[in-house]
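[Help] Beginner question about ligand-bound structures

Sorry if this is basic. My supervisor gave me a protein sequence and a SMILES string for zinc ion and asked me to "get the holo structure". I don't really know what that means in practice or what format the answer should be in. Inputs are pasted below exactly as I got them.
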Amino acid sequence: MNFFELAPPLAVERLQASALGSFARPYLDYLYEQGYKKDTIRRYFGCISHFAFWATPWRFDLSDLSKLANRFVSEHLPQCRCGDTVMRRWVDQKAALTGCSKIPRHLR
Ligand SMILES: [Zn+2]
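Answer (accepted):
No worries, everyone starts somewhere. Holo just means with the ligand present. The predicted complex, written as structure tokens, is below.
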């Protein structure tokens, strides 16, 4: 399943331009193989893209992902002004980013 083809072009562009770009596809494939529903994976894609868009100015390393994800959820989401196209649902954001930070190392 290629979730990059199903996602909005702006979300794909933001994700691919970020430090998460190289392992987003293996992560989404991993979720699909684990039995996650397509709608859930699509929402997670939007969450990760939103996070990547916000985090891009920091040029973060993947080893900082967990710390930066916590900051995104606790500081950015409550006052997000990224526009109507981003995914903001707190529950999905937390789940998607927690999954990202726990992703098996071989997928990175
Ligand atoms: Zn935002």
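A couple of things worth pointing out: The CA atoms of residues 9 and 15 lie 10 Å apart. Residues 50, 54, 76, 80, 82, 86 surround zinc ion (CB under 6 Å). Feel free to follow up in the thread.
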